[in-house]
Structure formats: C-alpha cells, structure tokens
Amino acid sequence: MEGYGKILRVNLSTGEIKKEDIPPSIARKFLGGLGIAAYYLYKEVPKGADALGEENKIFIAPGLLTPYGIPTASKTTMTSKSPLTGGFGRSVVGAPMGVELSKAGYSLLIIEGKSDKPVILRIEDDEVSIDDGSELWGMTTKEAQKKLKEKYGKVKTAVIGPAGENLSKISGIDFEERQAARNGLGAVWGSKKLKGLVVKGTKKPKAYDEGALRKLIAKWAKIIKDHPATKDDMGYGSGEFLRWMNLERGTFPTRNWQWGYFQSFYDKAKEGELLGIDPYYWVPKFRSGRNPCPNCTKPCSQVFKLTKYRPGEEIDGPEYETLYSLGGELEIDDPEAVAYLNLLCDEYGLDTISAGVTIGWAMEAYEKGLLTKEDTDGLELKFGNVEAAAEALRKMAYREGKLGELLADGSKVASEKLGKESYKFAIHVKGQELPAYDVRGIKGMALAIAVSYRGACHLTAGIYGTELVGKWWKFDGIDRLSAENKGFEVKTHEDLMQVYDALGICKFSRHMYFLEGFPELVHAVTGFDMSYAELMVIGERIYNVARAFNAREGFTRKDDTLPWRILHEPIPKGKSAGAYVKPKELEHMLDEYYQARGWSEEGIPTKAKLVSLDLDDIAEEVGVGH
C-alpha cells in the first residue's frame, strides 16, 4: 500500500517489539497522523483507564504528507488519554522526528506497558531496542538531548524534562526546539519511565506517483512563496498580529484575563510606541536566525538570543501563545524576560500556555490575599515579578515546596485545592488552560473552546481568524460579537482542521491550501481518488471518534462550558469593552452546535451519526438513540 509504513508496537513492560500492517480500510477511513492515532487510541485504551497507569498507551503518527517534502507538511500527532483532562489527549508538533520515523519505515508508533526503570526507545530502521536511560533521569531536556546525540550519533530525539518525570499534568515532550506540550502527555511518558525516543531512518518513503508529486511540490512552493502572508510570517513569526489583537480587537487577554488588552502599557504609551513583547519591537533587536520546521518554505521561527538572562543562550520563539502566557498574562512587557521564562519551560518540559496561565492564577490569588507568603514558599508572587515567575516554574517542574505542589497540575487542580472561590478566576476548560484569545469578544471561538475535545484549544477548530477578520474560505459576514449561527461555522472548521492534522499540513498555511489543494496531493502519495466531500467526511469521522472517547469516559454537555470569568465578567476596556459570553448565549450556541453535529441534546454522538460515518462498532458502544 503506497504512502504507508508499518505499525511499530513496543511494550515497555515485557520488552516485546512487534511490527504490523495498517489495514487498508483504516488507511482510507483515517488517512494518517491524527486520524490513525485517534482511531487506535479509542480502540486500545479501555474505558476508565488510569491516564498514568499501565493501560494507557502512547500513539505517535506522522501526518500522511509529512515525509515527502511537501511545503509546510511538517506535523506529527501524539495521542494518549490525557492526565490533565481525563479525556482524549492530543498534541501536535512540527519536528523532524515525524520525517525520521517515516524514513525508518513506520506510520504509527505505539508505546504500551510501563517500565520499572528509566528507558530510552531507540529506532534505527528495522533495528529497535529498549535501552537503559537511568543516567539521563533528572536531566533537563537540553542536557538529555545532548547526551543522546553523543551516544547515538546523528539521530532525532524527543525527551521529557523534570516536569514529566515528576508527573506534572501540564508537562510535555521536547522534540529538539519543538514541543508537543499540551494535555500533559509528558506525564504519560514519565509514568512509563520513558525518558526519551531516538530515531534514525535511512529509507525513502515511496509515493504512488513520484512524478506528479514533484510537480505538486513545485506548484505549492511557488504559491506559498508568493502569498502576501508569507513575508509577515517570516519577518515576525506567529506573534506578528499581537498589536492588532491588542489594539484593534481588544482580545489579547492580560493579567489573568482581568483585561482584554495590555492596559498598563497602553494607558501610558505614547502614540506609535510599541509594546515590548510585540515582535515588531523585539525581532530586530534579538533575532539571531531561524529554525524552520521540516519542509517549511515560509518559516515563522524567530530564534531569540538572550543578552540579560543567561547571556548568549538562544531560544526558538517566543511564539504568539507564549508572548501571551508568559508575557501579557503575567503583566511582563520585557521580551528578554519572556524569552527567558520560555527557555525555562522548554528545559523543564512544561507547557508554556498552561504554566503561564497557572502562574497568572496564582498571582491573582496572591494579590487578593488568598495565597500568603507561607503558601508561596516566601515568593513575592505579584504580577510583573519575573524572578518570582522563574522560581515558580522551577518549583512546579520539581513539585518542590508548597507552591510547587499546588501549581504542578494546572489551575483547575490548584483552584480546587485552594478553594476560597478561586475557581472564579481559574482560566481553563476541561482542566486545560485557555490560549491567547479573549473569547468574550469572539463568540464563535468561545463555542469552539467550550466544545473542544481536548479542553481549551485554539487549533482544534482554528476559527479565530475567521471570527476576528469576519471572513475566510467559504465564510463571510461573520460577526464576532454575535452568538447567532455559530454551530455550523464551528463544526465545519473543526472537520477541516482534523483533515489538516491527518495530513500533517501546518495550519498557518490554511489560508493557502484550504480544502481544494488536498485531493491531488493525497492521490499522488497514496493513489486514493478522494473528493472534497470524502475528505470532509474523514475530518468529521476523526472528530466523532475523539468525542466518542470522551463520551465513553463520562463527558457530557456539562463539560462543554467556559471559565466563570468569561461567563460573568465583561472585558473592562479596549475595543471589546463590555463583551462577555452570557450563560444563555453559551447554551444557545451549544444547541446550534449539537444540532449541526447530529448529536443528542447532551452532546453525545448518536448511533445514526456514527453509523453514517462507518463507525458501527463505536455506535454500539457509546451512541445514543435507535
């Protein structure tokens, strides 16, 4: 079957290593990447499994198009049951590991069981071994990757840091300056004593029509090169639109979502003055180079060289989300400080979004008097305090002291431990902290955040651009402040974004490929003749599998909600002043959304819907209705 490698299955409990074929019917129904990883997660991790127990598994799948040099096809998906949310866990990374895994001959890596000592999984083409990793346990991600390359030579690596080792539910995996950070999957690695993965592949993945593929690669390289967005993306990175979000839309959340724009700066700024964390300010001063994802012809990477904190060291980023979570969220305007905190998160193996938002919650609790110096181990945990934030990150990674133990698992767990109505400013959905869009002023995105199967996520639907600009692809005339007609809009975006993740295409090029660019690429790689409709059905199928996983774990409509602050406190100032999502508006949007999805009023996929998607076995297990 062209376009596909084997399934590699490694059991860390028994040491057994097996290779299996991907059934052609599964390949056609799910393509690759997220699709295949979602299907196998549902089928192989049983209901009620402990996310940090032996029954949970790790599934790593390169996107279908990732190995072939197709522009911006760089993404690899990892799924597992999330220790953070207790539901479907997904993390996507644009790293060389996916290409290397494909070159070694594998389209899906399944890691199961649980080692009783730290291990490294080594894959070199057909040779696979489980090696001792004891000497690396306790090392930061950078230290561990350096040791692995010294030992194994020219390999691609992925490792956890101290946060994953200490089972932090907001820990991720570092893939050499790229992170699969969300949903706490680093803790799953840590629970299995899997310190790292090293891969070397020397095979050439075979496509169905190599000649057609070469022509398509050239075609898309030119389209992307000539697209007007490419210059801005390459020039200033993913944070390029920060100023626009901050001033023109008033939807850049700061100070733990007390504000919708960086008020403390703009209230005193001179006309035309730039915010320190705005890439238009810091890129010309601190960028030392770029570090593109594999196959990227429009690299948004901005390598930041530090001069004040850890002088001379470099960090890939900070990205837009991190400029929010470790910048605006903590009321820190110093770009070097944000880059430094970003560096610490990467070394410790912490998700920058969840870590920053959790510290933001703690800073608000401290300033409200709900946390004392005794609770914070003596730290002056006030907004803007860089040193306190840095020390808090360290304590979180090592679960050190009262503060480390309080914050290590994110803001939901922390607010439950603290009580005192601190839940009212805990900014999470299903346990996962929100990304950098104040959805009080973006109603369609508020719905997308509420229903996302992995908890708060901006890329499960990728709808923020459509809402904020008012149009995209087939959509036009979108009113971001209205709660009307959002169900079909969100559902359609979600289905399409699942296709992007199945193929491995970066969503920063979604305004270039759209859906129309995919059928000929899929055909060149696999030989599958697929219509636009079939691709969208695949996206819908993937989304329903993920939702069914959550339904089997007991998730219902009650879990499709938003933080208390978003439902009750309007944005106080800026372009979106007065906006918030009224509880009745959310309920109305949920009704529209479930109707568009063909689910029950409780948000459970119906048997009829699942059967229509050729998911008969899942329909029998979780589907409702006749």
From TrEMBL:
GO terms for molecular function: 4 iron, 4 sulfur cluster binding; aldehyde ferredoxin oxidoreductase activity; electron transfer activity; metal ion binding. Its EC number is 1.2.7.5. It comes from the Archaea. Its cofactor is [4Fe-4S] cluster; tungstopterin. The keyword 4Fe-4S applies. Keywords: 4Fe-4S, Iron, Iron-sulfur, Metal-binding, Oxidoreductase. The keyword Metal-binding applies. Residues 5-203 form the Aldehyde ferredoxin oxidoreductase N-terminal domain. It is an enzyme of class 1 (oxidoreductase). Belongs to the AOR/FOR family. This is Aldehyde ferredoxin oxidoreductase. It comes from Aciduliprofundum boonei (strain DSM 19572 / T469).
